Every structure is written in C-alpha cells, then in structure tokens.
Amino acid sequence: MPRVTANIAAPPPLLVWEERRHIDRMLAEREELRQRIARLPLHCHRRIVLQARLEQLTLQLVAAEVALNARPLP
C-alpha cells in the first residue's frame, strides 16, 4: 500500500523575505548569547539570566520557523 505524505510546499522566497530576515536576526542574536554565556562562570547570576533569555529566544525562533513553513500559498 502506498504511503500518503503531506505535500506542503513552502512559499516562494520573495514572499517571505521579511520573515526570513527576522529569523536571521534571531539566529544572530542567539549565537551572540551563546558566546556570552560561554565566557561567564558556571554559577554566575548573569549567566543564568542569559540562559533563560537564550531559551526564550530559541522558542520564539522555532515558532517563527513553524509559522513560516505552515503558511498556505496565495
């Protein structure tokens, strides 16, 4: 029996450039946070705060990517 798969096509890149730019900015901010966290001592309060911010940013990033890929074509 053939397997049925969902054929979800991504929107053309020209229609989602603002969303992609926002995701790229979040990725850059996430990398910057990771580098700052790596330089701090393990149990430093600032490190814990930055780790919480990194987790929040990662959740926002995943949500934005899911929303971008779930958009229907016009």
Automatic annotation (TrEMBL):
<protein>
    <recommendedName>
        <fullName>DUF465 domain-containing protein</fullName>
    </recommendedName>
</protein>
